[in-house]
């Protein structure tokens, strides 16, 4: 079996395990078993569970899709933000169970997990800040608004964000973040 295929199988198996048991509850032994390889082989590809988790976030997160949107020259800032917002909400909905488990693991006792999230959020802030031609704090407000809305609706209220609702909230959010821009011109 090829090196690339084995690596992909490990990452996909890790995603499945992390989605079911979380980062803390998943062992590299379980991941290697699901991938059909030995644990020694897993460590040939990834030095640690943390490194493997970072790879899972990179592959299965919204970041690659947002990077593509950022580089689309033909789109206005408003259209880019709309597409970014839609991607973030759809990604969160798609990974709802994974999100629930990861949220339950954030505590003072999981510094390793918190460090990974900080790096992820920093990358997300940077991409959105570039799109907005703004600072990271404004970018964080943008995606935090989406995340908060997702948590309120899908997790706490158990109310699905359908396409109609998604379109409505995206438009409102983009208006909020581009309204001041229009006033400055």
SSE inventory with pairings:
Blueprint: H1 3-25, H2 28-35, H3 39-45, H4 49-60, H5 63-70, H6 77-94, H7 96-105, H8 111-132, H9 136-156, H10 163-184
Helix pairs in contact: 1-2, 1-4, 1-7, 4-8, 5-6, 5-8, 6-9, 6-10, 8-9
Commentary on this structure:
The model has no long low-confidence stretch (mean pLDDT 87). The longest helix is centred in the N-terminal third of the chain and has 23 residues, at 3-25. Helices cover 82% and strands 0% of the residues. It folds into two domains: 3-48, Homeodomain-like (Arc Repressor Mutant, subunit A, Orthogonal Bundle), CATH 1.10.10.60; 61-184, no CATH class. By secondary structure, it is an all-alpha fold. Keywords: DNA-binding. Pfam families: TetR_N. Residues 4-64 form the HTH tetR-type domain.
Number of domains: 2
- N-to-C SSE string, H for helix and E for strand: HHHHHHHHHH
Helix coverage percent? over 70%
How many strands in all? 0
Class per helix and strand makeup: mainly alpha
Percentage beta strand: under 5%
* Number of discrete helical segments: 10
- Low-pLDDT runs: none
Q: End-to-end distance, in Å?
A: 58 Å
Note the overall shape. Answer: globular
Please give the largest β-sheet: none
State Rg: 18 Å
Summed over residues and divided by their number, the pLDDT gives a mean of 87
